[in-house]
Amino acid sequence: MFVGDSVNRNQWESMVCLLQTAIAPGKATWKIGAPLSVFAVEEYNTTVEFYWAPFLVESNSDDPRNHSISQRIITPESISKHGIHWKDADFLAFNTYIWWMNSHTIKVSRGSSDVEYDEIERPIAYERVLTTWAKYLKNNVNLSRTSAFFISMSPVHQESSNWNDQDGLACAGETTPIMNTSVALEMGTDRQLLQVARNVIKTKGIPVTLIDITTLSEYRKDAHTSIYTIRQGKLLTHEQKADPAKFADCLHWCLPGVPDTWNEMLYAHIISRS
Hints:
alpha/beta, Rossmann fold, 8 helices, 15 strands, about 20% strand
């Protein structure tokens, strides 16, 4: 089961596409839902699932279709409502990142309601959430049976000036990767959060494998869905496609593409344990 945000759903979709090449026609079924989507493979008595929990913990924006970016409030010590759905999976692949990047602070509930909240610096709130996540895994998931993974942050390519193209329109029209690997990239990725994840996994003593996909993905400015995407369930109109500066999706990835590489890395970790 993949647990996280829409980028993790992107990786789940990639995994399903990869698996379909080895599944006989008519031997698999889809069930797309919210928060749970399931790809079931009858022949192998197996499911590959995605559970929507963009902050991992509970928030007032857990409905994938009905939420407000500016009003997002998290409850960092509350996770069991989500966790009960994924605690018995054989393999768990978590992520949480992109919903943290709308501001430098995060609204954090003072209790169980959303009426009173504090605005906390992003890394501090992130650590509180991952500490809750780690404790839940330790106390509720049999980690001697279940293999758990944490996927690092997926970069965006919204600012073409980051790869020295002052006239570019974000990722729109990009057809080649960044080829200069001698200079460290600056794509606006908050690597503090990656360090927080490393520290929590280490200090809480949980057997979770961190899979770092960040740097390799930063070079792929050409690999996003760009104007060939959907908004609110619909393909972009001709007018929207003509305005890539506003409508190009430089967050999600084309398939086949970069998420396939992430899954090859995940698969390598899985088979190395068998």
